Structure formats: structure tokens, C-alpha cells
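Weekly sync, protein design subgroup
Attendees: M.S., D.O., the rotation student, P.L. (late)

Item 1: inverse folding check
M.S. brought a backbone from last month's batch and wanted to see whether the design step gives back something sensible before we order anything. D.O. pointed out we never logged the input encoding, so this time it goes straight into the notes. C-alpha cells as presented (192 positions):
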């Protein structure tokens, strides 16, 4: 049985070399079609353009070269990431100088003492350096002058003490009612 001669080549070793070269070209051709499809999906958002780019790559080697010339320079993920970073940067820039009033949601600058819309006090003026400071701050961060704001620990301690005193004052009355009820008598009603 005779081997199939490609291009009418009678030499078997030369025929094998041509067959291997054609196989490599065929695999390269199919790999370029797949690469064009995969690259177009990463770079082009429109599915119709992805299909057109893939179909253009079916023209042997020329279609892929044309796609390389006209393809978008960036991946879609890079474009989305850049847009996200731009949005975040714009939001940071917007928050640097302007804030919203906690009472009426009007835009106020960071150094406003009062809201121009609702006239409520937003910040206090430091008695030493006259810079706007938050009313809850105990010290001015600009000049280190102490303010008259009460410390949060003393306010909590005062609240706990008044709550504990009210509980202690209510206990004897509750005990008296409980003993009268246990002895069978009706609890006495207090006048208000």
C-alpha cells in the first residue's frame, strides 16, 4: 500500500515533514481563532462585535492580524476598575470640603459654625484660637486649649449614681407592699 503523497511528493521523509508542517499550521490557525475569541471577550463589551472579530479570524492569519490592529487597547476589567477608582476619588474630593447638616441635610462646609439653612449650631468657636471645634471635644486640636465640655466618664458616672439612688429609694416601698400582700392585707395606695 502506498502512502498518500501530499503535493505529489514521492520522498517519504519529505512527505512526513510537509505533513507535520501542515499540522502545525492547522493547529496554529485554530489557536489563533480561539485566542481572538478569548481576547475579544475580555476587551469588547458588545457580544455582536465579539462574534464579528471571531468570524474575521477565520480568514487565515489575516483576520487575526486585522483584529490586532483595531482591537481596544484596554481590558474591560481595567476600564471598570478605573471608573470605580474615579468615582471613589470624586466622592473623597466631595467629602473633603462639604458635609451635610445633621438637622436639615443642607450642604455645609467643615468650618461653618452654624447651618445657613436651619440656623442650628454645628460647632463651637475655640476661645483661644477662634477655630471651629466640635462641642463634644474636651481640647482644641489646633491650639491645645481645654474646653468646658464635660468628660464622658463623669456624665456616665452621674447617670449611674442617680439611677442607683432611685432604685434604692424605691426598694423600701416595694418591700412594704410585698409584706402587706403576703400577710393577706391589701397594699396601701400612695397619693400623688
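Designed sequence read out in the meeting:
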Amino acid at each position: 500500500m502506498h502512502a498518500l503523497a501530499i503535493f505529489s511528493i514521492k520522498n517519504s521523509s519529505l512527505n512526513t515533514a510537509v505533513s507535520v508542517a501542515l499540522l502545525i499550521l492547522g493547529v496554529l490557525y485554530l489557536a489563533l481563532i480561539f485566542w481572538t475569541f478569548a481576547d475579544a471577550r475580555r476587551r469588547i463589551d458588545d457580544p455582536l462585535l465579539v462574534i464579528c472579530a471571531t468570524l474575521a479570524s477565520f480568514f487565515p492569519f489575516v483576520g487575526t492580524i486585522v483584529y490586532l490592529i483595531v482591537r481596544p487597547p484596554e481590558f474591560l476589567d481595567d476600564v471598570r476598575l478605573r471608573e470605580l477608582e474615579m468615582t471613589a476619588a470624586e466622592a473623597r474630593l466631595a467629602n473633603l470640603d462639604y458635609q451635610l447638616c445633621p438637622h436639615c441635610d443642607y450642604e455645609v462646609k467643615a468650618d461653618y459654625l452654624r447651618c445657613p439653612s436651619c440656623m442650628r449650631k454645628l460647632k463651637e468657636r475655640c476661645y483661644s484660637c477662634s477655630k471651629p471645634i466640635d462641642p463634644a471635644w474636651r481640647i482644641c486640636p489646633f491650639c491645645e486649649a481645654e474646653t468646658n465640655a464635660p468628660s464622658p466618664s463623669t456624665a456616665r458616672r452621674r447617670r449611674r449614681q442617680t439611677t442607683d439612688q432611685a432604685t434604692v429609694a424605691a426598694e423600701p416601698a416595694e418591700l412594704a407592699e410585698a409584706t402587706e400582700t403576703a400577710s393577706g392585707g391589701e397594699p396601701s395606695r400612695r397619693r400623688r
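Discussion: Residues 187-192 have pLDDT under 50 and may be disordered. The chain has five helices and four strands.
Action: P.L. to compare against the previous round before Friday.
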